[in-house]
Design goal:
mainly alpha; 47 helices; 65% helix
């Protein structure tokens, strides 16, 4: 997509209320005007132009004018071209009357003229007086724009007073408006990381946002992988026009003020007191009044920032190297002079000195990097850590560098550094400090095989002797076992956690153990127990006194809670909790824990039967995981394939599975076979789909992954094998209490027994837990059975219910919904052949796919036609496909 394409598609979004307001007042005879107030770049002129076009479309005569400071020096200079020929204004009183007479059209359908004046506050007094008289006489309707802060200008007070003039204030875009405009312009979903980048960088300014999108698309920084748009770099390039706009905006600053802006561009935020050492209060006041800086209260101090994030980029780009150096060193001097007592002052001193001279005191760099890492400012922390001379890089520095690389997503380099840190460890304490982050990086970052994880743990075990140290090793082993699918072993290793309580000698170890046990319980279908453990971990975490380690687990805790709530049968609550946690992530970086949270949100959306939501979340995980996170990437690609196939998009499902097949062989999870199974469903090959699901469910049973087994068995029920799956689902419901497993078992039992009443009860249960698609399928199948039994009224009621439920399912296409009541009258084999034939397959192709003879296929097709009262494949497709 090129620049022109983006500009052509740039819509007027988020302004619906204002447009409705204009549509209401312009036909009102007593209304006289519509004034739009707002800061520069917020879209005042764009909105006003849209209003003018609407007026023209309604049959009004229209005109436009732009007020400028230059035109204001000449009376009527801005609107002279709008005045009718023959108007004599040499004497104002009769002249104004003649203008009103010449402009008015008595008896016309639209007698008034709509006049747009951009920048009303710059109008000269004579123009304002004439326009006001024409407004009061009902000759014109004024449509004007006014820059924020100019409401007291003479022209604005003259034209805007009175109830007949409606005034609206435009603000910048919020997050939802940014999402809406991006997805309209780019014609597809946009990743949350890209939204965060663009929202933060643009500050919600619509004009700036447009130029950023144009620049990012043109530079190849904002790209689409076929599923979702996202950023390929942290910096968002703008356009020359954007830079010129900002330079023009900054040019109003006085010389002394420009120096303040330069300081802030390199060092913001700064305290007001700090800035006042170098700048006069009136200078700061002028900058604030001009809208170039903002002063905000942060705890007990007043902090000063640039009014817009992009101002800093332009200021830095225009700054000479000498100016940059002098400015930074001046700030170092002022900080030292004040004593550098605040905690963050160490980070500032090291950062300023390093940027100015390329070097800094090693001890200061060490302290500053630790503080930056704790604050999750990973790029800054990495810059500080890498500046530490090699001779000063002991074990603690190497470990901190490895941790920070892991959090920043550079997993291979993190492993290189962490393995060096492990080799440098000389005490048991150091061995135990390095082990957890290294195993996490190997598991979630590099997808290392179980043997590699065990080798690392065994190497540590040779150097650990204390009971506490051995406990830490067991927790690491439990987490590793869970990652590769050894669920029973993981649970066994964490079995004594209950007796240990939260009084473990190391809070971080206990938190990791609790999170691991919660995930393992959820995987085995014990969602309520899993929820209990993760809630204990969340409650304990803020009080643990941990800093960096505990903070990095915070997002993972919410991710596991989403998983636990889903397995407890509280799907809607799980999505709400996960969405709220994700929305609370302020930075745009994509960490391993953030990917985990997005993955479980995708999984929950799939369970709820919302394939579009699931596909979007899976696509985000896929985009963020390429090419460095093969474990999560593999799972997300399988989920993406399943969601796409459920929407009937077989091409996207095939592409996702093909990419997955190219990944290195890693631990395999049975639930990942859903992508393959639903691709077969999308192709109409139900026999192959059922075979895949049956094998995967058997593997899940052998591994002890009851949650996956239940999902796979439920899909078998939906595809016509309820009799095969119902018994095991009933056993799971008995073993794992909770509404999710009970409702699945009830669904399977009713489906197997062709019991419409049982299916309607199951639909109630499934709807209550948020499983909308399963509920829709249950109601649809019940409607078909009732209709076949001659209970037309109840069948119609069930069908209406099924339609209402299906409407929530984002276009999901399953055999139970696609075939409606017609397919229920068919046998399993007839249903499969009907679906294949409805997709255009010839009899020979169907025979080859099902390994039966062509004659058998034709005989089945004839019986299908007879049952459905049709004669052609086209009619069959019309009956079976949406």
């Amino acid at each position: 997509m090129n620049r022109n394409r983006v500009l052509q598609r740039w819509p007027l979004v988020g302004r619906e209320a204002e447009l409705r307001g204009f549509d209401e007042v312009v036909p009102e005879p007593r209304s006289a005007g519509f004034l739009v107030f707002g800061p520069a770049g917020v879209g005042k002129s764009r909105l006003a132009e849209e209003c003018l076009e609407r007026a023209a479309g309604l049959g009004y005569r229209v005109g436009r004018a732009v007020a400028t400071a230059a035109a204001a020096s000449v009376p009527l200079g801005a609107i002279a071209h709008l005045l009718p020929d023959g108007a004599d204004l040499s004497d104002p009183v009769p002249g104004f009357a003649s203008v009103a007479r010449l402009l008015s059209r008595p008896g016309a359908t639209r007698p008034r003229m709509v006049i747009l004046v951009d920048d009303v506050h710059l109008l000269d007094a004579t123009s304002a007086m004439l326009l006001r008289q024409l407004m009061d006489a009902g000759v014109i309707f004024l449509l004007g724009t006014v820059r924020s802060g100019e409401g007291q200008a003479l022209a604005v007070t003259a034209l805007g007073h009175g109830d007949a003039v409606r005034q609206v204030d435009l603000a910048g875009f919020g997050r939802e408006q940014v999402v809406t405009v991006l997805e309209q312009v780019l014609e597809g979903p946009v990743g949350r990381s890209a939204v965060n980048h663009l929202l933060t960088t643009s500050g919600g300014n619509p004009l700036y946002l447009r130029e950023l999108v144009v620049g990012a698309v043109a530079a190849g920084v904002l790209t689409c992988d076929g599923e979702i748009w996202d950023m390929t770099a942290d910096r968002v390039p703008g356009t020359r026009r954007l830079t010129d706009l900002i330079r023009s905006r900054l040019s109003v600053a006085p010389r002394a003020g420009r120096q303040v802006l330069d300081v802030l561009s390199l060092c913001e935020p700064l305290s007001l007191g700090h800035l006042e050492r170098d700048a006069e209060p009136q200078v700061l006041g002028q900058l604030e009044q001009s809208g170039l800086i903002v002063v905000v209260q942060e705890e007990r101090r007043s902090a000063v920032r640039l009014a817009h994030p992009l101002y800093g980029e332009v200021l830095r780009a225009d700054m000479t190297a000498q100016c940059r150096r002098d400015t930074l060193l001046r700030q170092v001097h002022l900080l030292k002079q004040s004593g550098a007592r605040r905690r963050e002052d160490a980070v500032h001193l090291a950062t300023y000195k390093l940027a100015a001279t390329g070097t800094a005191n090693p001890a200061l760099l060490v302290r500053a990097s630790a503080l930056a890492a704790h604050a999750r400012e990973y790029p800054r922390a990495l810059g500080l850590l890498r500046a530490i001379p090699q001779e000063h890089r002991g074990f603690r520095i190497q470990l901190l560098l490895g941790k920070t690389l892991y959090e920043a997503g550079d997993f291979q380099q993190a492993e290189d550094v962490l393995s060096q840190a492990d080799a440098m460890a000389t005490t048991e304490e150091e061995v135990l400090a390095a082990l957890p982050v290294r195993t996490q990086n190997l598991m979630w970052g590099l997808g290392a095989p179980y043997a590699k994880l065990l080798d690392v743990i065994e190497s540590a075990r040779c150097r650990v002797t204390s009971p506490f140290g051995l406990r830490v090793l067991l927790v690491n082993e439990a987490a590793s076992a869970l990652t590769v699918g050894e669920v029973r072993h993981s649970l066994a290793l964490s079995e004594d956690l209950e007796h240990e309580g939260t009084q473990a000698p190391d809070a971080t170890t206990w938190l990791w153990a609790a999170m691991t046990r919660s995930m393992a319980l959820a995987v085995t279908g014990r969602g309520e127990e899993a929820e209990g453990w993760i809630r204990r971990a969340i409650a304990f975490s803020p009080a643990s006194g941990e800093t960096h380690s505990a903070a990095t687990h915070e997002v993972a805790h919410w991710a596991v809670l989403v998983l636990a709530l889903s397995e407890s049968g509280r799907l809607a609550e799980a999505q709400e909790v996960g969405e709220r946690a994700f929305a609370g992530l302020t930075d745009a970086s994509v960490t391993a824990d953030r990917r985990l949270l997005a993955f479980y949100l995708a999984r929950g959306a799939w369970a709820a039967g919302h394939p579009a939501q699931a596909r979007r979340w899976f696509a985000e995980v896929v985009r963020a995981s390429r090419p460095h996170t093969p474990v999560v990437l593999s799972m997300a690609l399988a989920g993406l394939a399943a969601a796409a196939a459920l929407q009937g998009d077989g091409e996207a499902a095939e592409a996702a599975l093909a990419e997955r097949a190219r990944l290195p062989a890693l631990g395999f999870f049975p639930e990942e076979r859903l992508g393959e199974a639903w691709l077969y469903v999308a192709r109409g090959e139900l026999t192959r789909s059922r075979a895949v699901l049956t094998a995967a469910a058997r593997e899940a049973f052998e591994r002890g992954e009851t949650a996956s087994e239940a999902i796979l068995l439920t899909d078998l029920v939906r595809l016509g094998e309820a009799g095969e799956a119902a018994g095991r689902l009933a056993e799971i419901a008995a073993e794992c209490p909770g509404p999710l497993h009970r409702s699945r078992a009830d669904l399977a039992a009713a489906w197997a027994a062709h019991d419409p009443d049982g299916l309607l009860v199951a639909a109630d249960e499934l709807e209550a837990i948020g499983a909308d698609l399963l509920a829709a399928e249950a109601a649809s199948t019940a409607a078909s059975l009732l209709r076949a039994a001659g209970e037309t009224r109840r069948a119609n009621a069930a069908a209406v219910r099924a339609e209402d439920l299906a409407a929530r399912c984002e276009g999901a296409r399953t055999p139970a919904l696609m075939a409606r009541e017609a397919v229920v009258r068919l046998t399993g084999r007839e249903r499969e052949i009907a679906l294949l034939a409805s997709r255009g397959l010839l009899s020979k192709d169907i025979a080859a796919a099902l390994t039966i003879s062509i004659r058998t296929v034709d005989n089945h097709l004839q019986r299908i036609y007879n049952k459905l009262g049709i004669t052609t494949r086209k009619e069959l497709a019309d009956r079976l496909l949406p």
